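Listing S7. Sequence submitted for prediction.
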Amino acid sequence: MTESQGYLPVLPPMLIRRVKTLQGLAGISEDDYRALLGGYGAASCKELSIADARHVCDFLQKLVDAIPEKKQFRMAKPYSELRGRSADMATQKQLRMLEAMWVSVTWQRNRTAALEAYHQWLTNRFDIRTPEWIERDGVGRIKKALEMMIAQEGRKSFR
């Protein structure tokens, strides 16, 4: 069966991912994306021919290239990869708060050294190997210890 008889080749998953990734990087809304696909006679990128999918990729890549680099690649917030954790584990926001409190009391000059010191302090003081393992009921104890350190330094408390 040939394309002229109604058979369309299956679009490779890699090309589908490329189209969807470029859509996200370009910041195209779902309505605008569907309108773009409609120009190629498709309601979904899976319905595109390989040639049309490449044209869409080229178009979206030009849009992405026109975006200033700072807006293209924003750094993810720390601990953002920890979504969907158990309810008894500390939240992303709590982990960021504790880390910010630590950074305010540490003597380390750069962030990498400060985080290494934070991990060591958690291990020595609370027997926690990494912040991701902090349980929700342990957040208060760690926060209290950090607030005491802040008070000793005469720094402003986090509340």
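Caption to Listing S7: primary sequence and predicted structure tokens for the chain studied. Residues 94 and 139 are 7 Å apart (CA to CA). Residues 80-153 form one domain.
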